[in-house]
User: Fold these one by one.
Assistant:
Number 1:
Amino acid sequence: MGIKTSAEYLESLKKLKPTVYIAGEKVEDVSTNKFFQPSIKEVCKFYDWTNDPEKRDDFVYWSSLINEEVSFWTHIRETKEEFVDLLKIMKKNNARNFCSFCMGIGPCVFWATTYDIDQAKGTNYQERLREFFKKLQREDLRFCLGVMDPKGDRSLKPSEQADPDLHLRIVERKADGIVVNGAKMHTSTAPLAHYIFCAPGGFLTEEDKDYAVSFAIPIDTKGITFIARPSPCPLNATQMSNPASIRHNMVECLTVFDNVFVPWENVFMAGEWEFTDRFIHYFSSYGRPVKATCISARTDMIAGAAALIADYNGVSKASHIRSKINDMVISSEIGWGCVMGAVANSVDHPSGIPIPDISMSNAGLYHTRLRFVEFLGMLMEIAGGVVTTMPIEADFRNEETRPLIEKYFKAKSDIPTEDRLKLLYLIQELTASRFGGYFLSSAICAVGTPETNRLEVLRNYDLLAQIENVKDICDIKT
């Protein structure tokens, strides 16, 4: 019962009636709307993996919550070994499929926060979260994350904004629940999920306690509006011209809450501002190694593409090209090594989940994501300017122009021109397309920016201990 098929997922999607706008139009049925088809295909792919005999060992787990098999995306990782397993699956899978929808870890880290609040305040938030996860697992439901607020003027706290709704907030407390107003940004694939899970986007003070709110509700709850951005996959995508975006194609959303009622059983934080720092700490500890794994895997992809196009072009032995590819490999290994080190140095939280080392994981992500930007440029350099000037697939399929393209886009004599074109189209998508911009943005901005990585490393690194070591070496007593 905890594992659905993609057909069952599509049927469940038809039963939902969210308020959705995309490309200037209101959507009556996301399951049939043309702009959502590429993204629906991707979500269906995740359901298909759990039902694929060759992939189920990676994407099916046994849940101690419901004593049934559950999917990769609803499972709580309770040990270091399970978290390492998740990361290894991502490392292997993302180098070929771009994405494993890793941000499913979001509610998992709230597992620790709700425990902390309950212990200090005598609340029952974790029991509510536990029951929510049981529902997700039994029905194999999908959720999207709403963490980032619009923020408005970044120099002002949420309660100081000219418009109080620029951070999601509680506007009314009732006997049976709360009412919220505001919005969340970057809610990936939101209209294709069953639930949206919201949590605070930053540290809060007592003056901002109404903004300390976390909950999960169905996406078609009254008062929620999704303004969606089409995925970077063209509507007429083909395997040859769009080998990247045809595999990774999420719609992104602005999600607006207009006096939305949330019943207490779905509320996991309501005013406990002093615990927002813990949530951000836990989220960083989990989200940064996950993202570093993703960037490492995508760097592996870039290294593979660079090596292959260098071979096709007949320049694989050039020392400067070998050096560039070597840099890609080293960066990928550094990021992956930091991820494994962060998990190895995890601290077991009393709620039952491991909390990875925050400094090590942030250092790994900071290094890999900045080098990743550099490597995209290297990949384009190795492939050549043809990446942005080559004919489109339609001309290659035209009987009159194909012979000319076959002749003049030939490189090494033993490599079919079509194979070289396929690879060049991939490199074009990665480096010089709308998808390329999305690909780059997800590396730089997802789960916080490089500057947040720097701050977390500095905040958590014991620099004073190193100062004392140097003083000891120098026999400095003061």
Note: The chain has 16 helices and 14 strands.
Number 2:
Amino acid sequence: MKNKEKLRKRFLRDPFPRRMGGLAATLGRISSSARNSNDPNVVADLLDEARHLIEWTAAEAEIETAAELVRMQRMLTLWLKAWDESSQNPNQRLLLSVQAKDWSDRAIDFSGLL
């Protein structure tokens, strides 16, 4: 992830609901990119970004929300480690896309923005 410190500082200025909205947007981009991108590095960068967004936010969440965010983060880490190989398999790409969409919806729920 490029400019991680700059992203962290900007991200942490936002209130919790907006951070969850930002996480939801990143997860949505993972969903879309896993299906459509020809560059596996795009998805890998987004997976890494989402892991960091969770790291920077989970401590401020309610305990149940934090626990779910940490579970999400673990799965994102597993996807990131397997992405080089998984990116070559259309079924794996679809699976990540569906899972990331579900996570995005959960992050929006956590945000309370809707």
Note: The chain has a mean pLDDT of 94.
